[in-house]
Amino acid sequence: MKRKETYIVIIFLCFFGNVHSAAGQTITVVHADGSVRAGLKTTSSLHNLRYLSIQEFTSLFNTPAHYDQQQRKYFFHLNNKKIRLSPFNPFISIEKKIYQLPAETVLISDELYVPAIFFLEIISSEFSDHIVYDRLSDNLLVLSPIYGNTPNIQRVEIEEKTNGTLIKIFTIKDFDESNLSLRARHHWLYLDVYGGKVDSAKTYAEYPAGMVARVVTSQLSNELAQIGFRVRDEIIEKQVYLQSPRLIFLTVKTQKDLSQEIRVNIENEKKKWLIDLIVIDPGHGGKDPGTIGVSGVYEKNIVLPISKYLKEYLETELKINVLMTRETDKFIPLQKRTEFANRHGAKLFLSIHANHNHNRRLRGVSAYFLGLDMTDEAREVARLENSVIKYEEKSKYSEMSWEQYILSAGAQSLYNKESEDLAGMIQENIIQQCKLQDRRVRQANFYVLWGASMPAVLVETAFISNPQDERLLKDRSFQKKIAYSIFLSIKQFKEKYESAF
Ligand SMILES: [Zn+2]
Fold first, then answer.
1. Class of 153-259 in CATH
2. 146: confidence class by pLDDT, cuts 50, 70, 90
3. Least enclosed by CB within 10 Å: which of 46, 365, 392, 500?
């Protein structure tokens, strides 16, 4: 008999001493949909009671327990009811009701432990619509969503954009992308938010117009909120991401948005061909005179007035903005000329020159676009025009590798067809208007056309090396005629390309 008593005492001490570590059974938590997602670990303790940590319990419902230092009480919320407990005290208060546990709570390393079974039975009686503890099976049934405090998903905003719909979801809890999952089914888009809490009544919304017809939220379980969007059109593309930890963005595209996007692309393509800004490049200038005529006239001094007349025609007749690479007798490196046009987003680039040949009998006009030199004449003209680089302090062309050349010319090759087209129009109009000899449209490797991101043409108006041509070139009315012919060509080009859309 005495031996038996000692045995009981030892067991008693054993429980008491091992309150931290002796593992009790785990209470199975079963959700209404039959899923078992978490268990509650209990600890064997004094009086052979299983103890449950309040932290363990509240984490099941995503509602943190706090410690009120002044009142020396622990508290947490369930369905907006405040539950309060004190260390080493058998009383629990739920709102204004007081319940008594068969034993005191225990405090271990700042964690409050309560007698598990009795605690769960009190909670079950208070929240019987939501929670039922079944002593026989040792299961805690969560019948319907129950949440700790205020919903953490607060507000949904919908913005219709030209290329789709942007849905903004504002939260008061930090989420990360692993908490979010998005799927589309039939005419519904569902966003699952793990750790999300919603107030279905508050977030329900209907929209008379737009992609989203209504928003329906539901608390699927204590850990899972779902936001459903009823959409009016079939969803083609969808994406979810966090704009910030408390702002979820959904982007949605429907068939309608895609057709809209195509329309916008066409609009942009149209804008690309809207000839509203032209750069005119009067060749040479400053320390570079260009070629020198039979009577000693400089190319730079002839191409500048032609360019100015052209600018005037374009501005007054077509209301097009015109910029010039130079308006005075100023030296400008070749590369800077197309850079200037690119920087201003010019839609056409025109470089105006006068031709020169050691054969003084050669006359006539030739419009050039960038390409492989196909004839000796074209090669010779390009060599002459490119020789300008001897005036440039540090020329990039001499050091340029073949690959770099391909890259620079690449921008221009995109507009090869249009450049050729414009060159053809210029050639034809000058021959008709100015009665100049036709030296044909040609391709040549002009450095000044490299890198132009728009159709670009270089016009060799007439031969400064031929006495008759030179006389014409010096004549103001002829200069105007040349300018007018180029203006007519640009007008023609503009009409053709702008009406193509
Ligand atoms: Zn020139």
1. mainly beta
2. low
3. 500
